[in-house]
Write a structure and sequence with these properties.
Elements lengths: L4 H11 L4 E4 L6 H12 L6 E4 L3 H15 L4 E4 L1 H7 L1 H9 L5 E4 L17 H5 L8 H4 L2
Parallel strand pairs: 1-2, 1-3, 3-4
Helix pairs in contact: 1-2, 3-5
Protein name: Thiamin diphosphate-binding protein
Pfam families: TPP_enzyme_N
GO molecular function: acetolactate synthase activity; flavin adenine dinucleotide binding; thiamine pyrophosphate binding
């Protein structure tokens, strides 16, 4: 399997000392799942992946992880809806002064949508936001 951006993503997290990654994966994450499988098959070190049923749960778990261990965790969310669902937990992180590295996906795309899995379905466009700060205004 070729070295991909997703491979580099997990390599960098490991280099940063991130040992745990709390995730709520969706349609924008197949390349991450493939990179994890490939890394594990080849014995490369990647953060431990803990799947959460909801974005709020993922961030709350990362907060608890930091408070219990003193180690920062990464959180991977699902596109703009994931960031919206995480709003209350982000507020909790801020108020408790808990560090956390948060990533939100963006559906993959190519110039002309010529590859399967890129934005070739309506849902891929409906759930993406070009600017996270303006998620609310895009819905109005």
């Amino acid at each position: 399997m070729p070295y991909t951006t997703s491979s580099a993503f997990f390599e960098v997290l490991s280099l940063w000392g991130i040992t745990h990654c709390f995730v709520n994966l969706g349609s924008d994450h197949p390349s991450l799942v493939e990179a994890l499988a490939e890394a594990k098959a080849n014995g490369r070190i990647v953060p431990r992946i803990i799947t959460a049923p909801h974005e709020f749960v993922a961030l709350s778990a990362a907060q608890g992880f930091y408070q219990a261990t003193g180690k920062v965790a990464a959180v991977i969310l699902h596109v703009d809806v994931g960031m919206q669902n995480a709003g209350g937990a982000i507020h909790n992180l801020f108020r408790s002064r808990t560090p956390c590295i948060i990533f939100a996906g963006l559906s993959p795309f190519t110039q002309d949508d010529e590859l399967p899995g890129t934005r070739n379905e309506f849902i891929h466009w409906a759930s993406s936001s070009a600017d996270g700060e303006n998620i609310g205004t895009e819905a109005v």
